[in-house]
């Protein structure tokens, strides 16, 4: 196990796109083939050699924590960081979780299933003196709207607007050093995309191309695709 590394799962969103399903349960506990989705994520993370997980939680913190506990039943170490009464944004949630995080640390979203080699990507990142890394997939608007220009190992442009240059997409797994958050105070509300854009503007963001498509449960169609994939690819 990579005992000194931490992977953060951002799972504090409201999941409004999945109403009414997520009115009473968090997205992470949506049933996928008889098992809450977060369990599939933990199983995958563990299979890739990661043992330290931090969950950044919002409104539905308690049911997720009740389900996972401290991680001992899954042979991993799980800690929790909470937004509290005021939502902090994905960036603010990460900064609040700093006491639990390694430096650098890995990040993924609570609705993503990403079957890639996390430790290999961290090893690649450690070969460079950069503050961040974003995994990218050549997408060409196939799985979702492309939002990245990726060239020669660097993220050249990243945005949520339409752009004919965009062929790649933010895959959903990233690595950051804590110094990437220096422009922000602990009281700031900000998103991860703001951190990414700041690093890209300073040529501090590496890109790492992956080739396995992502699966997600952030939409009803995504849930069905994820169910089908996990039926065929049980760990």
Mean pLDDT: 88
Q: Any idea how many domains?
A: 1
Fill in the CATH topology: Spore Coat Polysaccharide Biosynthesis Protein SpsA, Chain A
Low-pLDDT residue spans: none
Q: Could you give the order of strands across the largest sheet? A: 5-4-1-6-11-8-12
CATH class: Alpha Beta
- H/E element string? EEEHEHEHEEHEEEEHEEH
C-alpha termini separation: 17 Å
Assign the structural class, choosing from mainly alpha, mainly beta, alpha/beta, alpha+beta, or little secondary structure.
alpha/beta
CATH architecture verdict: Alpha-Beta Complex
- Topology, number of strands: 13
Q: Outline, from the CA principal axes?
A: globular
Question: How does this structure look, described?
Answer:
This protein has six helices and 13 strands. The chain has 235 residues and is of the alpha/beta class. The protein has a single domain, classed as Alpha-Beta Complex (Spore Coat Polysaccharide Biosynthesis Protein SpsA, Chain A). The strands form four sheets. The protein has a seven-stranded mixed β-sheet with strand order 5-4-1-6-11-8-12, with helices on both faces. A two-stranded antiparallel ribbon has the order 2-3. The protein has a two-stranded antiparallel ribbon with strand order 7-13. Helix 3 (89-96) crosses helix 5. The longest helix has 13 residues, at 220-232. The protein is globular, with a radius of gyration of 17 Å. The mean pLDDT is 88.
């Amino acid at each position: 196990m990579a005992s000194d590394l931490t992977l953060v799962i951002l799972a504090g969103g409201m999941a409004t796109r999945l109403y009414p399903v997520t009115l009473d349960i968090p997205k992470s506990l949506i049933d996928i083939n008889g098992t809450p989705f977060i369990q599939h994520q933990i199983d995958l993370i563990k299979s890739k050699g990661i043992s330290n997980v931090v969950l950044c939680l919002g409104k539905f913190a308690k049911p997720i924590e009740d389900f996972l506990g401290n991680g001992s039943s899954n042979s991993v170490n799980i800690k929790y960081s909470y937004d509290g009464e005021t939502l902090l944004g994905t960036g603010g949630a990460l900064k609040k979780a700093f006491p639990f995080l390694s430096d650098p640390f890995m990040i993924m979203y609570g609705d993503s299933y990403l079957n890639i080699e996390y430790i290999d990507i961290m090893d690649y990142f450690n070969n460079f003196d950069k503050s961040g890394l974003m995994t990218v997939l050549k997408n060409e608007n196939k799985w979702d709207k492309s939002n990245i220009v990726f060239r020669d190992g660097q993220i050249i442009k990243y945005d949520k607007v339409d752009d004919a240059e965009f062929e790649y997409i933010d895959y959903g797994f990233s690595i950051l050093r804590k110094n990437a958050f220096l422009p922000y105070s602990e009281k700031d509300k900000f998103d991860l995309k703001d951190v990414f854009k700041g690093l890209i503007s300073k040529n501090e963001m590496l890109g790492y191309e992956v080739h396995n498509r992502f699966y997600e449960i952030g939409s009803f169609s995504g849930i069905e695709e994820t169910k089908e994939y996990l039926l065929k690819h049980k760990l």
